[in-house]
Amino acid sequence: MSIVVRRFWRCFLILSVVPIVARPTFAQINWSVTHPCQIDVNKYTFTALGGCGNWFTAAARKTQYPIALQFIFLRSNDGGMTWTEQDAGLPKSNQANHDKFSILKQIDSLNAIAGSDAGLILRTMDGGNSWQKQTAGDSVYPIEDIDFSDALNGILIKGGWLTQIWITSDGGTHWMPAPFQELNCAQCHTSGPGHYKVFGYASGPLYTTDDNWVTVDSAFVSGPLVYHNRILAYCDFGKTDLMFAYGTYTSSLGDYGLVARTSDNGKTWSDTTVSFFDNILYMTDPDRDTIVATGSTVSHVLISFDHGMTWNNDTSIATAGADTVPLYGLDFPAGIFLTAADRVVAAFNDDPLVGKGSLVVGTFAQASVRNNSVKNGSLVYPNPTSGILHIEGFTKAVRIRDALGRIYSLTAIGNTFNVSSLSAGIYFITDGISEASFVKQ
Q1: Which candidate, 368, 275, 270, places its Cα nearest to that of 310?
Q2: Residue 210: left if φ>0, alpha if ψ -120 to 50, beta else—which one?
Q3: Which residue spans of the chain are classified as CATH 2.130.10.10?
Q4: Which of 46, 229, 285, 393 is the most buried (most CB within 10 A)?
Q5: pLDDT in tens, 182-196
Q6: Was domain 4-369 assigned CATH 2.130.10.10?
Q7: Contact residues for 405 (Cβ-Cβ < 8 A; gap 6+)
Q8: Cα 317 to the chain's mean position, in Å?
Q9: How many CB atoms lie within 10 A of CB 107?
Q10: DSSP-assigned letter for residue 328
Q11: Which residues pair with 31 in a beta bridge?
């Protein structure tokens, strides 16, 4: 098979570098621990978290007195409020085992898949009642990332620097090497059969194919920031052309957390450096208006209410585990998600090596920010939409614009627009007083 790689090197053009102004004057999120670090003689270290809607699965290393280690999963069906242990049938050990499950994808209510640092893949299709082992080539290489568009179609990356890209169309019963292979890839995404994205560690490139690898577009990372000082180790892909890459920016003044945002599939990017983080590790769904992010070794979370255009600092997480994790606070995250009801579900550890971690749930202190489709009383639905869009709460004539500020003239019938003619992407609708956003599929 001959693959055409279109290396545009059109670059991740950095439009701006904006330091975040920390505003921790009030608690934007109220946190509570829903699974403590220790129950009886059992201590828990959480290594990965996956979420979809109100369904969550957490991977944990369970330490039982005196020194017995076992990898287990925990399941929540109510948005992280309660958790039930699930035994995946893995053997116990009396020796420290660092081959943890660090990748976990909650596909839907029944399907989830986990990947370990030792190359082990476990899959459940019944809500975690049973787990089956899967194989993608040599099992000794670590699983770097996994993504599924539905219960059957998926992609994974394994192998560190010598990465291997694997795809499946039967839920992982059979994993096949992708026709396209590239070194040092870190993250992957699929929106359906034949549609894949792969992001290279540190600075890209971002590889995209929409014809099952017959052709592959590549966008190389560049810009005015010092090239070797930008380490974008992680990324989250939106359903359209929206995407966030994040990690660390190193300067003469120290290390800063770095968030890079694109809304046109990597053609142009804007950067935000975060002075009170030295690294950004996890971020919630980029398709939501409200996005929460967290980093390493610091008890903060970042909150954006405008699709990641601007960010706020929240330090309330520092006291969330005061009763259960008294030594350092919740400093080592293992995942963070938003539920269908806009609660924040997160896994944190005070020290991943000694078995002290907690699962926590956060609710926003201000009710006005909880509904991701509501701003100043305005409401748009369904969201996302492929055709009809209903609007409520606007007091004047409205107009629709995209992320680049371009205005689209659409005729309303009552309080209803037909947006089927718009290209897929994120749009904003405003009457000059109120504003709401919607995603056109």
Answers
A1: 270
A2: alpha
A3: 4-369
A4: 46
A5: 988 989 999 999 999
A6: yes
A7: none
A8: 19
A9: 24
A10: T
A11: 362
| Contact between residue 67 and residue 61 where contact means Cβ atoms under 8 Å apart | no
| Owner of token pair 């019938």 | 413
Tokens of 209: 């194919």
Token digits of residue 117: 């640092």
Cα(116)–Cα(119) distance, integer angstroms: 5
Burial class (CB in 10 A: 0-12, 13-18, 19+), 318: middle
The count of residues in the chain is 441
Looking up tokens 């997480």 gives: 317
pLDDT, tens digit, 9 for 90 and up, residues 308-342: 877 777 777 666 554 433 333 445 678 888 887 77
* Top-level class of domain 375-440: mainly beta
Tell me if 8 sits within 8 A of 343, measured CB to CB: no
Domain with CATH 2.60.40 in the chain: 375-440
pTM reported for the whole predicted model: 0.76
Q: What's at 401, amino acid-wise?
A: R
Residue 144 near residue 160 (C-beta atoms within 8 A): yes
3-state secondary structure 5-37: EEECCCCCEEEEEEECCCCCCCCCEEEEEEECC
